[in-house]
Amino acid sequence: MDLLVHVQWMARYNQGLNTQVYDCAAQLAPIALGRDRGAFFGSILGTLNHLVVADVVWLKRFAAHPVNFAALEPVRSMAQPAALNQMVETDFGALRSRREMLDRAIIDWVEGLTAAHLDLLLDYRNMKGVPAQRQLGALLCHLFNHQTHHRGQVTTLLSQVGLDVGVTDLLNILPQVG
Length: 178
Fold this sequence. Notes:
Blueprint: H1 3-25, H2 30-34, H3 44-63, H4 73-76, H5 92-111, H6 115-118, E1 121-125, E2 131-135, H7 136-160
Antiparallel strand pairs: 1-2
């Protein structure tokens, strides 16, 4: 399997799992969503906000690449988050709408990429202003891995309050061969 196929699968997996997580979390009252549960970003709502913040940060970096990826146009006008723990939305419905927009932009973008795009270098600065340069394909792997990491935390927090997100395995979207 080549990297392009991998990131395209991951974009669809990412969208599907985000939908599952948000569907499950929607069963909770706002106070329960915002309750500090001792996670990296405190609450379920805080962790979901972190994922949106991190995606906006990375997508804005990708959008600034000289190739000027047209599919990332919706992200260019979004405000740059100031911190990784920023609460960009305190209303769950508004956060979900933003998540859906970001997932659609990610899918549209990766579906339009070529293998050559994944070898491009991206110059960027981290949140502390430190310059870095990495291959686009590797950064996309990071983007999806980061989502999986923190989404796993949210599924644990949901499980602790008696809610089941359902099957989260990537295996469910991989094509059967033979």
